[in-house]
Amino acid sequence: xxxxxxxxxxxxxxxxxxxxxxPYLFLQLAHRNNIATDYATxxxxxxxxxxxxxLDQFLEIYFQASQLMQTEQDFYDVxxxxxxxxxxxxxxxxxIFFEAQTHMPRGxxxxxxxxxxxxxxxxAHNSYNITALPIxxxxxxxxxxxxxxxxxxxxxxxxxxxxxxxxxxxHANPPSKFTKLFAQAKKYGxxxxxxxxxxxxxxxxWQAINELHVDRIDHGIRCIEDPNLVTYLTKEQIxxxxxxxxxxxxxxxxxxxxxxxxxxxxxxxxxxxxxxxxAFFGGYINENYQEAQRLGLTxxxxxxxxxxxxxxxxxxDDQKNKMLQKLDDWIKNQKH
Length: 336
Prior knowledge:
Blueprint: H1 3-7, E1 10-16, H2 23-32, H3 42-50, H4 55-66, H5 72-88, E2 91-98, H6 110-128, E3 131-139, H7 144-154, E4 163-167, H8 179-187, E5 191-196, H9 202-210, E6 216-219, H10 227-236, E7 240-242, H11 244-249, H12 261-267, E8 271-273, H13 278-281, H14 285-294, H15 299-311, H16 317-335
Parallel strand pairs: 1-2, 2-3, 3-4, 4-5, 5-6, 6-7, 7-8
Helix pairs in contact: 2-3, 5-6, 7-8, 15-16
């Protein structure tokens, strides 16, 4: 790993908790919760995590893995394992998606999920000096009504959750399907973000901006197909949380040379680099920075991505400024 990437202070703004479930933990949770799986070894699980070619196939494996998470301890263990790894890769702060809709229909209480995550966040802060905030992420292939019910269930834990998000298969599930959910969440004081412009095109990004009034766009890489959108995103500096390894593994762009990350960085968009589902896509945040470097980003642009990640985070300004100061100190040290 390039030492610049390894030591660069950064934030991670786009990572799904379930997507950090490493094969060894997969088997550990299956054994602990007495759940039969098709896999006997870590290597078999690892191979299963690679056996997909598009978003639909990935989501099928992803939701199978979700069945293993049952107890507060499970959520604690998975969260802590991710935060330990992230802290080793220079992450000062992480904002983590969790999808209650994959767990609550199985009888897992909302309190079990958020309490396990929050205890791990507190432990990681003490042990690894990393901060984190959970984002309650909704699944767009499910109904707005089911999302609104879970939004209500989240309110007693609102002090532990920073934002809501929207993920899963974009096709036939546009952002406009969830206008009431996002308006309600905004009234409750949540920050807003949504996956858009990953598997679907620029229209979904426009909808997320104009109809959901999001603070951040997750992915957004297909904005390149609409020059007017690129201009707007640049002018307004709406953050895009881009995940190179994810997009490449899911064949969002069939040819790697067509991947527009460098063009968008050169245009001045507010882009940060993130890992999405690192256990499935072959790398955590530093491997994604490394991929961005292979795609043509300069060291200066990698540093800009880190700066963007702090500026685009949902933390208070005083914490933002402290993280930016750490980045500035790191830059000074690089020059000596």
